[in-house]
Amino acid sequence: MNRVAISTLTLLALVACGGDKQPAADTAQNQFAATSASSFAGGTQTPDAGGKVITVEMTSDDKGNYFTPKEVDAKAGDVVRFTLKVGVHNVHFLPDSNPGRTGLPAPSDMLQLPGQTYDLKVTGPFTAGNSYYFQCDPHALLGMTGRLEVEK
Q1: CA proximity to 115, closest of 33, 22, 55
Q2: What is the DSSP letter of 147?
Q3: pLDDT tens digits for the chain (152 residues)?
Q4: pTM
Q5: CA distance 70 to 149
Q6: DSSP 25
Q7: Where are the beta strands (DSSP E) in the chain?
Q8: Number of domains observed in the structure of the chain
């Protein structure tokens, strides 16, 4: 990829973030999103008996674009809840980053309002003793990547 293409992609990713400043007109919409805390795609998931919900925040700020925590340890039946804090982000388990893994979920929709969530139940293709790598598509080149470790 040439420098112009990389510069253009970087600029588009930075513009998509928009920072944390929001006009007052968005306040009611943001309050609705934060209080509803419903999943943006796929619905709210419930962990299996004895399981837990693990929250991963998705953020854009003066430090960059990142998941907190970046590394997630979960057990089968847990739910990883990706919660938008600031910016516009998604979650994508790329086949290229997870060679040999099949049945990975499709990329999530873009979360756009603070408080929106995307729930991922650790089941199906996510098997014990394995690591799975995920990213935010528009910010992957800026380092917004993470790892899900499924414990035995």
Answers
A1: 33
A2: E
A3: 555 445 445 555 554 555 444 444 444 344 333 333 333 445 899 999 999 999 999 999 999 999 999 999 999 999 999 999 999 999 999 999 999 999 999 999 999 999 999 999 999 999 999 999 999 999 999 999 999 999 98
A4: 0.74
A5: 11
A6: G
A7: 39-41, 53-61, 64-68, 71-74, 79-84, 117-121, 130-135, 145-150
A8: 1
* Three-state secondary-structure class, residue 29: helix
What three-state secondary structure class fits 72? strand
Rounded CA separation 127/122 (Å): 8
| Domain containing residue 25: CATH number | 2.60.40.420
Q: How many angstroms separate the CA atoms of 142 and 11, rounded?
A: 11
Taking the C-alpha atoms of residue 36 and residue 42, their distance in angstroms, rounded to an integer, is 15
The DSSP code for 92 is B
> In this structure, how many other beta carbons lie within 10 angstroms of the beta carbon of residue 33?
20
Domain limits for position 72: 3-150
What size, in residues, is the chain?
152
How many beta carbons lie within 10 A of that of residue 69, not counting itself? 13
End-to-end CA distance of the chain: 40
